[in-house]
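Weekly puzzle thread! Below is a chain. First person to post its structure in token form gets bragging rights.
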Amino acid sequence: MARTYTLKRRAEQQAETRRRIVEAAVEMHGTVGPALTTVSMVAERAGVQRHTLYAHFPDERSLMMACSGLALERDPLPDAGAWHTIRDQGERVRAGLAAIYGWYERNADMAACVLRDAEYHPLTREIAALRFGPSMAAYHDVLGETLSATQRAMLQLALSFFTWRTLVRDSALERGAAVEAMVQAIRCAGTRESLPVRSEAWMRAAG
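Winning reply:
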């Protein structure tokens, strides 16, 4: 009985140590970013030795997978399947963008660091594609189901985290106003109104 208790206690301690390491990595990735986070930084934040960290996570990829998994477990990405039943295309896009922008708002610091680092750090780019790629593809499929090519391009712009940040963080729009602005932009992208033709004289003067 004593041996069983000892083994159980040891397993609980190992699970607790692993949890502290992953939570420390989540915190570091949301502040300095995954590309600049070192094993030493995570170990220090978790209160463990480097060799202890390596015992749980033998390489950077395994730690980043655990870190990203915990972050999405705490706040999963919106499920595109929930919008299939909305028949009106405008309302479907509106509902989808509202949910996605809400997730961006709650996870702004982490998303900014990860997407920034993904531009130049191969492992961050790989993990980001693995974690976000399927959901983003589903968003394009469900929200863009009946849109024209031009409207789908505008939808891609609307789905970008950086578009949300420009509208909400930089321009101080409320989430609802930002969503409505992009819904209208997508709708207008489908109109066939042509711009007035400029004369050759005007074009020479402008050149």
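Puzzle host: Confirmed. Bonus trivia for everyone else. Residues 22 and 49 are 14 Å apart (CA to CA).
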